[in-house]
Hints:
Strand order of the largest sheet: 2-3-1-4-5
Helix content: 40-55%
Oligomer: single chain
Shape: globular
Strand content: 5-15%
Largest sheet: 5 strands, parallel
Distance between the termini: 59 Å
Amino acid sequence: MSKKNPSPKTQTADEVLSHKPALSEKTYQAELRKLHIELVKMQRWVQERGLKVCIVFEGRDGAGKGGTIKALTERVSPRTFRVVALPAPTDREKTQMYLQRYVAHLPAAGEVVVFDRSWYNRAGVERVMGFCTPEQTEAFLHGAPQFEKAMIDSGIILLKYWLEVTPEEQERRLRDRIDDGRKTWKLSPMDILSFNRWDDYTTARDEMFKYTDTEFSPWFIAHSEDKKRVRLNVLSHILAHVPYEDLPQEKVKLPKRKIKVSSNTEHPLRIVPEKF
Length: 276
């Protein structure tokens, strides 16, 4: 069992951010652009060499998983970077072996699969909210390392990230979802039910780390108080842990073209009103 990644001590937002000046939007975008260029290079290498990469994002509600995943995938091909965010299991899936429905989404050669929550639902929300029995949780915690060892032995590069947020910042973000019409879809009934279970989730998190933070498949902890920083840090960490090279690429040159047919048409067109 690895001892290199101890459970993160709960800190206030001020403690986490006190030693870090705020990143300007200009600096953030400049650094993000550099990382996006490297991710495109990594994507080409993954495709060329048939790598199989699986990235797991876990953390409390409002920890910043969605924003980090968006930053990771917004400039690469969805055919290569596939995001998996499974809904609640169906009645049929509830009768299956627990890990069965996740196996179907694991990467094949030339793919990067990003799990927005994963099989670790059983160690977190299912355990805390009573959707599984203590015996099922225990069986999962003992079995997950074996499952991940089998993944790695099959050639999958597995990276697991836990985004750690303070209770103060989590509450601020959840309240923001209530007040911002663009974000209300992010606020589920489960978020509300989970709001007063902070200590239960802490216990579940620590137990999860105890059993599943292994030498061959460690957990990487990222403090997510500062959304810009955590995105840059996680993307940089991924690039450091997926071996890739910059493949030579022939420079694209557009040929000259001749357009003889007018772009106008006699067919009556339904034009979108220009309201803006």
